[in-house]
Design a protein that fits this description.
458 residues, alpha+beta, FAD/NAD(P)-binding domain, seven-stranded antiparallel beta sheet, 14 helices, 33% helix, globular, binds flavin-adenine dinucleotide
Amino acid sequence: MDVAVVGAGPTGLVSVVGLARRGHRVALVDNDRGPAPDGQWARRGVMQFHHPHAFRGQAVDVLRAEVPEAVDALLALGAEPITGADASGGAGGGELPAGAGLRCRRMVVERELRRVAEREPGVRRVRTRADVVRRDGGRAVGVGARDRSLDADLVVVATGRGGRLADGLRAPEESSDCGLSYVSRQYRLRAGAEQGPITSPIGAVAEHDGYVAIVFVHDAGVFSTLIARPSADRRLALLRHDAAYDAAVRAIPLLAAWTDPDRAEPLTPVLPGGRLHNTYRGQLDDAGRLPLPGLVFLGDSVCTTNPTAGRGVSTSLMQVERFLALLDEHGDDHVATGLALDAWCAERIRPWFLDHVANDAAQVARWEGRDGADLDPAGTPTSDLVVRAIAVDPSLMCIVGPYLTMRALPGSLTAAHPRVREIYASGWRPSYAEGPTRDELAALVAGSLAEVPATALA
Ligand SMILES: Cc1cc2nc3c(=O)[nH]c(=O)nc-3n(C[C@H](O)[C@H](O)[C@H](O)COP(=O)(O)OP(=O)(O)OC[C@H]3O[C@@H](n4cnc5c(N)ncnc54)[C@H](O)[C@@H]3O)c2cc1C
């Protein structure tokens, strides 16, 4: 059949290759110009493009199934496997065991996916912005843009978190503010320099009193530092200035170790991020009906979650895999495909959204120091507190491990709740990493910019 896929992010790119390899004729619609000849890529409109990403095993499993040559190319370019078997996370030797994730820049991953999609027979790229999903006889029949109109038997909307195409057709999204904002920067290790401390499969994580510092290891000696700060604290918005960010990085021990000038040099300016939301939106309209058979929403246009957990590409590509299987099963019965996809997303994707809604609300309350925000011992512990209780009782790992690797849904943590309640009822609380508190960080940021004219900080 003829399929129009709107949006050439990870969701759209993997979809078009998967569709073409199943014998469909595919048009990939996106206005982005693609990477420059030197490989750099501004990618306006995808705010997170240069922010740190890590790719979980679920995402990589789908890539291996649908675009295996892209995975081979990424390993050859220096992407590192994440096995999760130990804190270093690396399998080494360029091998990729089943279920392993990847440490790699998002730009590098997307460049390889795009390369495969562009060469794929049966895929044609259409450089435009789709304005409307065309309909006839109560079903989708293509997409319309300012400069052209495309016919299609099936329209896939993979327009990401900011996409507005066919917005009015579905029931409104469920949404909650993550309460945090990203400010990050990429660095490259100097020739011969060793990596800094590794404490987690993605690199290293330090939970501080009022913010989180993370190091993401990428490909070929590149890594990112990230300060995830409370969005409500405007003082820390000034971290977007290089001088302030540098001062903060020097003061946070984990980031200072990684960015020591003898070890690494900055590759980018400081990258500020926008506000982040957990969102979920199924395929159906307000009345619970499929609004337009032949129209399917995939990827971030269905679900977005707090990016510090690195689930977005996985939940997106899991949807793609499910959609492709349903299309194989139901052929041109688009009602059956749409309804089955919606039911599957409600069962397998929405629980991750709900998990983040609860976690983020609890984290914001803790960051704001609200009374009783640390934990009600009789209440339901949020997943992050369950995870942190492993520090007291490592045997919880047999319940928590499958959740951490997304092999089990968040509901599986219920089995740990009685023990976790006991732990917190004893008065134990997770400790914070060594380094400045949020107020100390804010003071440091202000101090670092004291000499900068106010007009330059606007
Ligand atoms: C700060 C941040 C950090 C993240 N870190 C991680 C991480 O570590 N690990 C992880 O797995 N996930 C992470 N994510 C999530 C991940 O980035 C998304 O899940 C992923 O981008 C979803 O891909 P997508 O293809 O659905 O959407 P996008 O990547 O947003 O792509 C959408 C595409 O659609 C195009 N488009 C939009 N509207 C139209 C239109 N009308 N016509 C034509 N084209 C259109 C856009 O130009 C874009 O190319 C992070 C997200 C954020 C915000």
